[in-house]
Every structure is written in C-alpha cells, then in structure tokens.
Amino acid sequence: MPTDTIKVAIWRGGADGRYQRYEVPLRQNQTVLDVVTFVQRHLDPTLSYRFACRVGMCGSCAMTVNGRPRWTCRTHVSKVIRRGRIAIGPLENLPVIKDLATDMRPFFEKWQKAKGTFIPSRTRNDPTELIAPTGAARRAADAAIECINCGICYAACDTVRWNDAYLGPAALNRAWSLVNDERDAGNVDRLAAVAASGGCHACHSHQSCQEHCPQALNPTASIAALKRRTMQAYLKGEIEA
Amino acid sequence: MNVRLYVWQRATAAVMAPLVLVHVAIVFYATRRGLSAADILGRTRGSIVWAMFYGTFVVAVAIHAAIGVRNVLAEWSPVSERHSGILAAIFGCCLLLLGLRAVAAVVLA
C-alpha cells in the first residue's frame, strides 16, 4: 500500500545506544540525508549527525542505511526504502561519538600510517615535472585517485572488523595512487609501511570495498597491485619485512 | 601477515601445486594397477628420487600450513599475533616431523 510517511528508525546514543522510531513525510526526490535533516529540524533537535556539501563531494555524511554503508546525500529514499521503513545507523567499524556521528580518527590515522602523504621529489625552484596522461603509472594513479574519504569501504570491510591493525581499503588505495605518482619520493617508506603486518597482505579480497564504494573505485584491485609491488620490492631487497 | 610470510606462503603453494598433481596421478596409477603395499615399498625403498619428491612436499606443507594456521589464530582467536606465531611454529614442526617420519618409512630400506 502506498504511504505518505516513512517509518524511520535512527540510532540514538553511543555504542550502547538503541534505535528510536520517527515518522517523516515522504516526498519526491528525497534523500536519506533529507530524512535525517527533517528529524533533526522538526522532531528532535538533539540528533547528532555529520554533513557538509550535500552533493557527494565531501564524504562527510556516510551512514549505515538498512544495513549497508552509503553516502546519504546521494542515496534516494525510493531506492532503499523497504515496506515504508528505513533504518539509519552510524558507520560500522568506527567508534560512535553520538547518534549518527562516528569518530573518524582511526580511519585517518591509518592513512598516516600507510604513508598516504605526498612526498615531493623536487622543490618549488625546480621546473614542473611533465607527466604524460597516457603513461601506465599515471593511468593507475587516476584509477585510484577519486577517493572522497567517506569511510564507507572501511565500514564495509570484514578484515577491518576482525583485525584492529589492518590499515583498511581507503588508506591502501591512497598508498597505491601515490606509489604510481612519478613525482613522489616516498615509496620506499610507503612500501615498507604497507608490507608490514596489518598492511596489504592482510586483505582477504572479499571485495566489499569495491561493492560499496560510492565513487565506483576498486580498492581491492589497488591492494592486489600493492601485494605484487611490495613482493617485488621485498625480493629485490628494497624493503625489509 | 607481512610480505615475508606472504612470499613464503605463495612460494610453497607454487611448489606444492605440481607435486600434488603428480601425487594424485601416482595414487590413480597405484590403485588402477592394483599395486600392493609390498609392490609400492619395493619401488620407493632406497629411491633418492622419491625421498626428494615427498621430502620436498613435506617441507613445503609444513611451512605453508604453519603460516595459514598462524593467520587463522591471529585473526579469529584471542591469541596475540606473537603467540599465534609461536603456536603455528610448533604446529609446523610437528607436521615436519610426522611427514619426514612417514617419508623415511617408505624410502629407507
């Protein structure tokens, strides 16, 4: 039966919280973020959640929607609603601060641990290095570069769930894009970091990251490529284990 | 798992794959020809080739399985990574001893 309201269950509280029910008017072209915003503005101003751009660029609004991690600003209610109901929770695999807001620090700390920072090989006084867009390394970097740091792959990853030390798909995908950056000078440290325990070899290739990535990236392929690259570097004696 | 263990696990898998195929072919050959235990032992005893073949297989299995058990313990049990490594090393040594004992039984005269 068609209905003009949505029955919404939203996670309230910290890790020991619970789902609370709300009724929200059903509208055309309504996103899950619109639903959350309606609740916060009209039903319960104490609801905590995170968003910024509302157009799928900033990666702030990822939540668990009906059991799957999604970017809520680009997820239409019509695509996820089941029998007039939607359950919205915080991202999995991250500490819950309150309600729908998770603590993203472990996620970004692992980016640092995977040496996800560009290390320049030239100074500002050197001429700009020309990188052909058709080069193999450039194309490999391109394939991995559009990550918006939303944490959806991290929340979807089974290996992250059971292995605290695992760097996770996003950090490893970032490392792979930098490994292919011909201007970068940090690859020895980077390859050593991702070849250590908790690095790329901990991945079981379940491919949940690729399945859920809203940007249609393939971190599993990046991680598989890192496995090959680190193995070559190890066999050549460029890195130690 | 780090890159060193990854390389060892993949390398031992690469060694085992053809050896398993040969072993299965031998099993088929022995059963279809109706070879008795005495017939088989008559061919394996004193054979350096069979000693090398199954000796290599046992060493590869002991390394490969120990790394796998280490990963299972580290990922699925409360045992720490270090202790998982110790337990898996003990398991690998047991496999090695049992396997080499079995090889010795069929190749030593």
Keywords:
heterodimer, A: 241 residues, alpha+beta, Ubiquitin-like (UB roll), Fumarate Reductase Iron-sulfur Protein, Chain B, domain 2, 2 domains, five-stranded mixed β-sheet, two-stranded antiparallel sheet, 10 helices, 7 strands, 36% helix, elongated, B: 109 residues, mainly alpha, 3 helical TM bundles of succinate and fumarate reductases, 4 helices
Question: Domains counted in the coordinates of chain B: how many?
Answer: 1
Category from helices, strands and their pairing of chain A: alpha+beta
- Please describe the biggest sheet of chain B, giving its number of strands, its sense, and whether it closes into a barrel: none
Average pLDDT over all residues of chain B = 95
| Residue share in β-strands of chain B | under 5%
Low-confidence stretches of chain A: none
Strand order of the largest sheet of chain A: 2-1-5-3-4
Examine the secondary-structure arrangement and name the CATH architecture of chain B. Up-down Bundle
Specify the number of helices of chain A. Answer: 10
CATH architecture type of the largest domain in chain A:
Orthogonal Bundle
Q: State the order of secondary-structure elements of chain A, H for helix, E for strand.
A: EEHEEHEEEHHHHHHHH
Oligomer: heterodimer
- Compute the separation of the termini of chain B in Å: 41 Å
N-C termini distance of chain A? 61 Å
Fraction in beta strands of chain A: 5-15%
CATH class (first level) name of the largest domain in chain A: Mainly Alpha
Protein model, in words:
Chain A is of the alpha+beta class. Chain A folds into two domains: 5-102, Beta-grasp domain (Ubiquitin-like (UB roll), Roll); 105-235, Alpha-helical ferredoxin (Fumarate Reductase Iron-sulfur Protein, Chain B, domain 2). Helices cover 36% and strands 14% of the residues of chain A. Chain A is built from ten helices and seven strands. Chain A has helices spanning 32-43, 77-80, 105-113, 136-144, 152-156, 158-162, 169-179, 187-195, 208-212, 219-235, and strands at residues 5-12, 18-25, 62-65, 68-71, 85-89, 96-98, 101-102. In chain A, the strands form two sheets. A five-stranded mixed beta sheet of chain A has the order 2-1-5-3-4. In chain A, strands 6-7 form a two-stranded antiparallel sheet. In chain A, a hairpin with a 5-residue loop joins strand 1 and strand 2. In chain A, helix 7 (169-179) crosses helix 10 (219-235). Chain A is elongated. The relative contact order of chain A is 0.13. The model of chain A has no long low-confidence stretch (mean pLDDT 95). Chain B has a single domain (3-108), classed as Fumarate reductase/succinate dehydrogenase, transmembrane subunit (3 helical TM bundles of succinate and fumarate reductases, Up-down Bundle). The N and C termini of chain B lie far apart (41 Å). At the A-B interface, helix 10 of A face helix 1 and helix 3 of B.
